[in-house]
From TrEMBL, chain A:
InterPro entries: ATPase_proteolipid_c-like_dom (IPR002379), ATPase_proteolipid_csu (IPR000245), F/V-ATP_Csub_sf (IPR035921)
Organism from which the protein derives: Geomesophilobacter sediminis
GO cellular component: proton-transporting V-type ATPase, V0 domain
Domain of life: Bacteria
Compartments where located: Membrane
Domain named V-ATPase proteolipid subunit C-like: residues: 8-67
Record's keyword annotation contains Ion transport: yes
UniProt similarity note: Belongs to the V-ATPase proteolipid subunit family.
SUPFAM superfamilies, per the entry: F1F0 ATP synthase subunit C
Descriptive protein name: ATPase
Length: 70, 637
């Protein structure tokens, strides 16, 4: 039972943070596409901005790994 | 790296101003400053350059003439090989007399040519339709009928059109269709002439485009329209050729002269405009600005050689208050130059800051290799980068190829350490001695390794930040950076002491040292210090992406290999595995690139970089990409 709960907690940690990252990236992606239509020279900056929310899922992953392995 | 700049003053007699400016411009290494602290000190008799009336009149004359010549450009096509041997300065007055007449005739020629081009294009389109419906016309020999040519966008519209025509004419019509050369469906409608107006209205209401025949042929029967259309096309083609020949003749005769004068005027005006940046006394001019230190001696030698001792070049002391104004020029060794592709995405750093290219060049390939870490993928990227380098024409693509070439070696190196070759661990004897970790199973050790790399990277960033703050004479900022650096070191030590068997006093000492670092940070940074510390810890955790993305990559490769085995059929399995490996390879190039850049731009550079530098824009001849070398100093006896 304890193993099941641990697995569920790890899944929640990574699943919810992945949803949050996806939501943030969808907002940044649409705004970025609009910005690129007017200023194509911002391509690099927009790509970097798009990668920034991935910290959320990385943190979720670290928490999940700590739940499962520590 | 950021090129060291020298602050320079050039002083000479006023009558040599233009020749000196000309030489400075030819050198292409000197950024002239309109304002400088030395000249703002209101030294007696020094004032901004005031051109006399004759100079102003001359400049206005040049600008007016250049504007008029620019208007002629549509008629001045290039004739390679034809050059004017007239001295432009001597021909100015003569050209000023004829340029107005040429402008009028050029405008007229261009207008005619434009109209003819438009008409020819329209006639060509119409001819295309006509040639499409010509076979249909043969079946409609009765010229007493009214004819309509229409284009039908959708075949479904044709049924609706036929229904409407049937209602309107009581079935007294005929419709024939064919496909034009451009693929559109063309229809020819034949009906008694009394229905012509009503059908035209119907087509307008239904928005079915009628073939747009010239207005003057509208009332004539369609067969006659066809004939006249073709005749007119021939006429227009002849007229266009005649006008183009006139333009060509004009360009052939006057083009080289006008081009030479245009270039001379642009040169001269760039000099005259630069005089607005000069200061002067009653007898001397004073020119202030910046140039790269390695170019100072060359400029001095060039001026000395041409003007002897009458013009003096003096290096001025760069004071602390000048530092924010020093223009920034970046120049890197060949290894680092391709990485400017990534540093160009950032704003220009301050002169007192660091060139981000060096750090990206050092760490990017290592982190890329740590993430991708597969000898097979690394080999493919290596081959791809060599091919790209060979065939790419654009500079950015060539730079990308060079970066991939370097990064691929690191991917191969880490691939050997991880024992990975397209996601599998081959049982090669030599690999057994090299491979140290299996990423698929060693999740926690890899996580600790990635975070440790982050700690080391950020410690370097904080150290450089403290160094920069000390150079800017901001001791509190430097202390805050050092306190945060110490906090990271002691926190990392405390974490290790709990994972490994450390004596309890050591663990306790590390905890106390971390606490002391927090107190120091609070003293240096005030209430915002805790936020800063939390940010640094978050930054360290962010480096876990090195392991996380790498793990995702190796698992996709593993799945690709499993798929191949599960399919049960060799060819299908190989194709499926190949496709999945291809997807993984593309992801394996883009994903590490984006994330490694993000680690640099956000986490690492945030610790020490300061942006907002002024780009070095030397005074140079318009359109000159690189400065030609100045004459070298003659060897001494």
């Amino acid at each position: 039972m304890e193993k099941v709960l641990l697995g569920f907690a790890a899944a929640l940690a990574i699943g919810l943070s992945a949803l949050a990252t996806g939501y943030a990236q969808s907002k940044i992606g649409s705004a970025g596409a609009g910005a690129l239509a007017e200023k194509p020279e911002l391509t690099g900056t927009v790509i970097i901005l798009l990668a920034i929310p991935e910290t959320l899922v990385i943190l979720g992953f670290v928490i999940a790994a700590m739940i499962l392995y520590l | 790296m950021i090129v060291r700049m020298a602050k320079v003053g050039v002083v000479g007699p006023k009558e040599l101003l233009l020749p000196v400016l000309d030489l400075v411009r030819e050198s292409g290494v000197f950024q002239v400053e309109a304002e400088s602290r030395e000249l703002a000190a209101e030294e007696k008799g020094v004032h901004p350059h005031r051109p006399d009336l004759e100079s102003v009149a001359r400049r206005l004359f040049y600008e007016d003439l250049l504007r008029k010549i620019d208007e002629l450009s549509p008629c001045l096509t290039d004739h390679p090989g034809r050059e004017s041997f007239l001295e432009p300065e001597n021909a100015l007055d003569a050209i000023a007399h004829v340029v107005d007449k040429h402008r009028l005739s050029c405008r007229e020629l261009c207008r005619n040519r434009e109209q003819l081009w438009q008409e020819r294009e329209r006639l060509k389109r119409q001819t295309q339709f006509v040639s499409a419906i010509a076979p249909l016309m043969e079946g409609a020999a009765d010229s007493s009928l009214g004819f309509f040519g229409v284009t039908v966008r959708d075949p479904a519209d044709l049924d609706r059109l036929m229904q409407l025509l049937s209602d309107l004419t009581g079935g007294r019509y005929e419709i024939m269709t064919t496909t034009a050369a451009d693929g559109t469906l063309v229809a020819l409608i034949a009906l008694p002439p009394q229905f012509a107006d009503r059908v035209r209205r119907l087509l307008e209401e239904e928005r079915i485009p009628e073939l747009a025949f010239p207005e003057q042929y509208r009332d004539r029967p369609l067969p006659e329209q066809t004939r006249r259309l073709q005749e007119r096309l021939l006429q227009v083609t002849d007229e266009t050729a005649r006008v183009e020949a006139d333009v060509e003749r004009f360009a052939h005769r006057w083009g080289p002269i006008y081009h030479a004068i245009q270039q001379w005027l642009e040169d001269r005006l760039s000099l005259l405009r630069a005089t607005g940046l000069i200061h002067e006394t009653d007898f001397c001019f004073l020119l202030h600005g910046w140039l790269p230190v390695p170019d100072l001696e060359r400029l001095r030698a060039g001026i000395g050689e041409k003007f002897g001792g009458s013009v003096v070049v003096e290096e001025l002391q760069v004071l602390e208050e000048d530092l924010a104004q020093v223009p920034v020029s970046i120049s890197n060794p060949a290894y680092f130059r391709p990485f400017e592709l990534f540093s160009r995405l950032l704003p220009l750093p301050f002169y007192t800051s660091y060139d981000p290219t060096l750090f990206i060049g050092l760490f990017f390939p290592i982190f890329f290799g740590m993430i991708l870490g597969d000898a097979g993928y690394g080999g493919l990227i290596l081959a791809g980068s060599l091919a790209l380098r060979r065939y790419a024409r654009q500079r950015d693509l060539r730079d990308a190829a060079a970066i991939l070439f370097i990064s691929a070696w690191y991917a191969i190196g880490f691939g050997l350490l991880y024992g990975e070759f397209f996601g599998i661990a081959p049982s090669w004897p030599f690999l057994a001695g090299i491979a140290v970790v299996d990423r698929r199973h060693a999740v926690l050790p890899m996580l600790i390794f990635s975070v440790s790399v982050g700690v080391a990277h950020l410690i370097l960033g904080l150290f450089l930040g403290a160094l920069g703050a000390l150079r800017r004479k901001e001791p509190r900022e430097a202390l805050l950076k050092l306190a945060n650096l110490a906090l990271l070191v002691f926190l990392a030590g405390a974490a290790i002491s709990r994972l490994a068997p450390f004596p309890a006093p050591v663990t306790r000492s590390l905890d106390l040292a971390a606490l002391a670092a927090v107190v120091a940070a609070l003293l240096a940074g005030g209430l915002l210090a805790p936020l800063e510390m939390l940010k640094h810890i978050g930054n360290v955790v962010s480096y876990a992406r090195i392991m996380a993305i790498g793990l995702a990559s190796v698992l996709i490769a593993h799945v690709a290999n499993r798929l191949a085995g599960l399919s049960g059929e060799m060819i299908f399995g190989a194709v499926a595995a190949g496709l999945l490996h291809l997807v993984n390879l593309v992801l394996g190039i883009f994903s590490p690139t984006i994330h490694v850049l993000r680690l640099h731009y956000v986490e690492f550079f945030g610790k020490f970089m300061s942006y907002g530098g002024r780009r070095f824009e030397p005074f140079r001849r318009p359109g000159l990409p690189h400065p030609p070398p100045l004459p070298r100093r003659r060897a001494g006896p």
